[in-house]
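Input/output pair, single chain:
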Amino acid sequence: TNFSYEKLKVSKRKIKVGDTLTVAVKVKNTGKFAGDEVVQLYLTPPQSPTTPARTLKGFQRISLQVGEEKTVSFTLSERDLSQVTAEAEIKILPGQYSLSVGGGQPLPGTAFAEETFKISGSKTLAE
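Output:
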């Protein structure tokens, strides 16, 4: 079956270091059969030579009947929003981030929804 992702919302478009972020998206079964979907949340940090292009930060399996839709929510902690630097430190970095939620990585031809948010400040986390 097929699924669509719509109305991705973040709790805040601008957060400070230490804040959590809640993400919600509507997932709808647009196909002809009932089915399960693994809803995946990917975070793309500000570009730097040492950060990955995107990382999987959460997933949930849901079951939907034909035409049914559900809102799926994720809460990202400061650990979820952190990156490992070239110096092997776990840090929250300031800048513009992107979130993608879908049934897989956000690639051409796949169904997903995107949103951005900004973090101000930086913080080094304990291991």
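The two ends are 42 Å apart (CA to CA). The CA atoms of residues 36 and 63 lie 4 Å apart.
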